[in-house]
Amino acid sequence: MQKYLSYSALFTIVKLWKLPRCLTTGEWIKKMWYIYTVEFYSAIKKNEIMLFTETCLEAMADKPNPGTLSDSSEQLFSFGVIADIQYADLEDGYNFQGNRKRYYRHSLLHLQGAIEDWNKEGNTPCCVLQLGDIIDGYNAQYKASEKSLELVMNTFKMLKVPVHHTWGNHEFYNFSRDYLTNSKLNTKFLEDRIACHPETIPSENYYAYHFVPFPKFRFILLDAYDLSVLGVDQSSPKYQQSMKMLREHNPNMELNSPQGLSEPQFVQFNGGFSQEQLNWLNEILTFSDTNQEKVVIVSHLPIYPEASDSVCLAWNYTDALAVIWSHKCVVCFFAGHTHDGGYSEDPFGVHHVNIEGVIETAPDSQAFGTVHVYPDKMMLKGRGRIPDRIMNYKKEKAFHL
After folding, report:
1. Which of 93, 91, 194, 89 shows the shortest CA–CA distance to 152?
2. Residue 396: what pLDDT?
């Protein structure tokens, strides 16, 4: 991989990577890993070192500052976002550490309120992204998984627009992957297929797809539990591969514990992306680059450390970042899982937005949002716990009708 590296390019990238403090040895290694891997992907694709250098400089320089929407801004379309509903017909309780309150039964009322709001909006959202953990794992303990899922899905029927469902760890606490594949939580039928580009059709080995809600905008749903020990038969090769990876990084007896780990994301309640899925993602982003599209990526697990608790990241989040950073088309990455939410813009201008969880939202608040899409930005209008955010595109990505 080193043969693709230009020392002058490396020096320039490091100099422009604005860091708030001195790095530890471990952090420095990770930063260097990012640079090596991103350049590797780009060099393979373009085989031009100088082109990569120019791309990095453009991505890191002259970032536009968030502004305010003017009355003259022309909205193109909008979509809803909601995460971690985790409904269960239970009294209020607490998380596994006992320090965070969870409103199991009231989460359904929050969902109903969100749907009523979306239905009443002047410009109806084109769709809603449900970012995973639709019902809580406690349902399995009380043998109420199917009943609770049916109740939540019947509530979603009140929504006037399609819902795209991602799968999180609580889906796999309740159901097997085979069950989910044949359930109403599988929304692959909403995917778009690109003519003459069969490589962009996802495999049946993972749950992922892409669709176009508006011309020149492509949304991609990723399967963050493609590599996982949850919901899969223990005799399957995928389980064996995932358990080997988990054990190599987590020697704890309790695999849900990050105690003492240098990479705390390697816990059982997280998962990762197979190389097969990453290759598929790369093909779609290559098409979107060529077609001058903007891309929004959706996953239950976040992939950018600055926007998330380190324990909640996907196992191989660095691999996903390497693919994304080797393309110009990605503008936003939406995830759930953290419950507290989070936000950061990475050095390549991708906005990482983690949506606050419904399950830990008090009855007198809310936790959902509508993203309004404009030619030069996206604006998240949050409700309750979710703050408003303005996410400008990089200057060279401004969209013109």
Report:
1. 89
2. 61
